[in-house]
């Protein structure tokens, strides 16, 4: 493609003129974009014009359309889920996903890594003892002969890659991310949350996206507001209410199906689309009929059960953590390759040492 400037003389009759019979003449240069094709002969060439740039004329002046300024993004990396292969802690999984994330997703955009704090899920477990009881604790020794803990190793990798690591004791990473994301949005940035955790769907909007690690495809994949609308045919503001009714097996939060077998996702979506939120639905159901009898009975009889689920599954935005200006600068990626390469070598050596120690002890 090439741009060709063509000078021309245009007569423009103004709206108000001292002499209406005398048009104003101005010289205007039009830009014509097209493909320039050269023939085999060096002495000849041809130019094809495929389109004209869209322009407007204001009193003879060419006004180019303004380009929409691209808003900067801030990535939040939910670290803990990346450190598992299935239900088993695995630093190889962490290394693989972080390497792909830096190379293919975040690039030089700011990244804030967040890990679960000590006793982070304690408050929710008081409400529901089964909450996340199946998850293994990551903060433990991951090989014989290594006295450090996984958190220290992970933090070292991020520090060398110029990524701040946030850990707030008494709070889960989800709540810390939700709190910081709110602060990022307030200063005009867009937010991308890197996590496989579907809890973050309740935060989706035009300015909040999710990028998920897909094991089958071995890559990260963006999940946006459009994806959610296409999947559920409703607004993400209903997502939390829907999960309160359906439950969250991954987090050990049971839904209402075992109490009201006929109350499935189709019924839940229909009621939420009509009444908005779970709280609004429960309030209306307490004074009048909102659906079929089995749904009406479930909503009135198990209202406290559903409200408890809401308290457990809703992300908090009031964690005592403050966004720092230095977290928002473009990330220096110059150390990524060396740091991750050394980390992979370290994991291989640790694994060999573990096998050798096991062989000696068994022998």
What does this structure look like?
With 363 residues, the chain is an alpha/beta fold. The chain has helices at residues 91-106, 122-127, 150-160, 173-186, 225-232, 239-246, 265-275, 278-285, 293-301, 303-313, 336-362, and strands spanning 2-12, 24-38, 45-52, 56-58, 61-63, 73-78, 84-85, 88-89, 111-115, 165-167, 190-194, 208-214, 219-223, 247-248, 253-254. The longest helix has 27 residues, at 336-362. It has three domains: 2-63, no CATH class; 70-232, Rossmann fold, CATH 3.40.50.1010; 234-317, DNA polymerase, domain 1 (Orthogonal Bundle), CATH 1.10.150.20. The strands form five sheets. It has a six-stranded mixed beta sheet, sandwiched between helices. It has a three-stranded antiparallel beta sheet with strand order 1-2-3, with no helix packed on it. It is globular. The chain contains eleven helices and 15 strands. Helix 6 (239-246) runs antiparallel to helix 7 and helix 6 crosses helix 10. A hairpin with a 2-residue loop joins strand 4 (56-58) and strand 5.
Topology:
Blueprint: E1 2-12, E2 24-38, E3 45-52, E4 56-58, E5 61-63, E6 73-78, E7 84-85, E8 88-89, H1 91-106, E9 111-115, H2 122-127, H3 150-160, E10 165-167, H4 173-186, E11 190-194, E12 208-214, E13 219-223, H5 225-232, H6 239-246, E14 247-248, E15 253-254, H7 265-275, H8 278-285, H9 293-301, H10 303-313, H11 336-362
EC number: 2.7.7.7
Domain 5'-3' exonuclease: 72-331
Keywords: DNA-directed DNA polymerase, Hydrolase, Nuclease, Nucleotidyltransferase, Transferase
């Amino acid at each position: 493609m090439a741009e060709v400037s063509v000078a021309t003389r245009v007569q423009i009759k103004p709206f108000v003129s001292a002499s209406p019979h005398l048009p104003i003449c101005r010289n205007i240069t039009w830009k014509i974009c097209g493909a320039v094709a050269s023939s085999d002969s060096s002495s000849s060439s041809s130019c094809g014009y495929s389109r004209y740039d869209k322009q407007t004329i204001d009193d003879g002046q060419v006004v180019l359309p303004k380009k929409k300024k691209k808003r900067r993004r801030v990535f939040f990396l939910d670290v803990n889920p990346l450190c598992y292969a299935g239900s088993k802690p695995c630093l190889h999984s962490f290394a693989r996903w972080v390497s792909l994330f830096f190379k293919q997703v975040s690039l030089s955009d700011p990244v804030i890594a967040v890990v679960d704090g000590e006793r982070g899920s304690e408050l929710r477990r008081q409400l529901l003892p089964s909450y996340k009881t199946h998850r293994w604790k990551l903060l433990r020794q991951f090989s014989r002969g290594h006295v450090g803990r996984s958190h220290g190793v992970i933090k070292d990798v991020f520090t060398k890659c110029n990524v701040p690591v946030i850990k707030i004791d008494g709070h889960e990473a989800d709540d810390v991310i939700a709190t910081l994301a709110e602060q990022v949005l307030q200063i005009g940035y867009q937010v991308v949350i890197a996590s496989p955790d579907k809890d973050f769907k309740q935060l989706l909007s035009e300015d909040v996206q999710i990028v998920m690690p897909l094991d089958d495809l071995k890559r990260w994949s963006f999940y946006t507001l459009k994806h959610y609308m296409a999947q559920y045919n409703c607004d993400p503001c209903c997502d939390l209410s829907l999960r309160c009714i359906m439950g969250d097996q991954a987090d050990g939060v049971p839904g209402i199906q075992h109490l009201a077998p006929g109350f499935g996702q189709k019924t839940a979506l229909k009621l939420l689309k009509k009444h908005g939120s779970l709280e609004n639905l429960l309030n209306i159901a307490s004074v009048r009929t909102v659906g079929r009898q089995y749904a009406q009975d479930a909503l009135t009889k198990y209202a406290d059960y559903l409200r408890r689920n809401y308290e457990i599954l809703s992300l908090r935005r009031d964690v005592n953590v403050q966004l720092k200006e230095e977290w928002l600068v473009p990330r220096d990626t110059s150390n990524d390759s060396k740091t991750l390469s050394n980390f992979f070598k370290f994991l291989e050596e640790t694994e060999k040492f573990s096998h050798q120690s096991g062989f000696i002890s068994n022998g």
